[in-house]
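Possible regression after last week's pipeline update?

I re-ran a chain I had predicted before the update to compare outputs. Posting the input and the new output here so someone can diff against the archived version. Not blocking, just want to make sure nothing changed silently.
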Amino acid sequence: MSTTFRLTYTSILSLVAIGCGDNYEQMMPMPDSPPKVECQLNSEPPIKFGASIPLTGNGPSWASPGDQPDLLKKVINEGCGAIGTELLGTPIDFIVLDSQDSQLVSPGNIDQMVSQGVVALSGSGSTVTTAAAILQDLFMGNNGQGYGLPFMNAHGAGSNMIYCTAAQLADPNVTKSTQPTSTAGTCFDSKGLVYRTRDNSISFGSASAIYVNQIAAPASQIALYSRTEPSGAYEIAANIAPRLQTSGHTVNWVTHTAGTPTVAQFKDVIIPAMVANNPTIYIAGAANPQLANFMEGFAQYAADPNTNKPSNFTTAKLVFYGNVAGGDFTTLSLAARTLMLTRLTSIQPHFDERREGYKRWHKLWTDFYPSESVPLSPMQNMFFDGWMIMTLAMVKANSTSPEAVKANYLSVVNPPGTIYYPDQYKEARAALLRGEDIDYDGASVGDMTPNLENAASIVFGYYTFDIDGVTTLSGTVEAQYTPPD
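New output (post-update):
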């Protein structure tokens, strides 16, 4: 009878450990674990994204997301690019053209970027008509065939000119237009290819009404000015007026056809119509040029001894809804700037600094641009979020096709799934390629509705002015997303 002994690696270690006491690990170390393989960018040509944004023109410089493409390239490409595998990813690049905040320039930009091979587009402007002009070319250009590419709009409050809501699509009484429109009873059927990650006319209107209700006495007389349709300012006003009326106030809503009325038009036409109900609060909108002319017109009206000035005129509060913080008003007259100092408050979207996603975007931004001040406008991080979501949708489908973006855009920014923040793109990409669900929680975007409106809270800021027209944040409010009754 014989006995066979088999020595294994483990048994050898045990014998050595017995003979060598606590020093055996130094004599016979365990084998090294395999080195971790990091994901790398492949050698494929970069995926091209296109952005037509206002680098010059009427829009205030702080409203332009022009410094975000370079930051996005860094975050996405250092995170292994877009589509690919867990070990190899395709880099991305941006083609950025100046829209000049012009509805005449923007369509040509779209044609140029499409000719250079972009797979998705974005645009922004200080007016909804700029966004509408981009969409007009995107859907009706190419000899009427359109380009059929996904489009992310980081600006422009006019909802009907961006897409039809689910309720509008289901309503047989609403006409579905094949191009952007703000005609009553119609909406633009953008086939699910237009997205945005910003406030809309409902939230802008609700924030404005909340503020006015805070400062108004019960049953106040209120004057409201806006441009006529089609305009984002009109849609905002349409969400302000009924909210104030529901609160018991009387609203005298005055409209004008001019996009930017002159000082004379404000003094001689618009303000005379606004004073008719002896208001204690005057509300107007929509951007820097309108505010400048409104204030100058109001000052000239006040100084003219021949104008009608009802009893509340000299003490009435002035409220302006529009993205004007950070604008240059130093060229206005002293009388106009004094009115801004003593009687004016402006309302516009503001960062929600409590959000974890915002804090992480803020660090990314300040690390990348250490010598620049933090942007005053949330258009910056709304643009960032929109492209992050667009890219993650492509990663999930492993495709850049419009159908892939359309099918996956919502799924990467809503539960269920592990939450990932702006500085965790690499981890979010890897999770998607493993087949896991993710929930991107961005600088301005939480969960999103099927219409791709920001369904998380959007914080609006209230701004006061000094004698030079420089703004200071004086308070915030969370907007509501329920349309007015």
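Follow-up from reviewer: compared with the archived run. The longest strand covers residues 471-478. Marking as no regression found.
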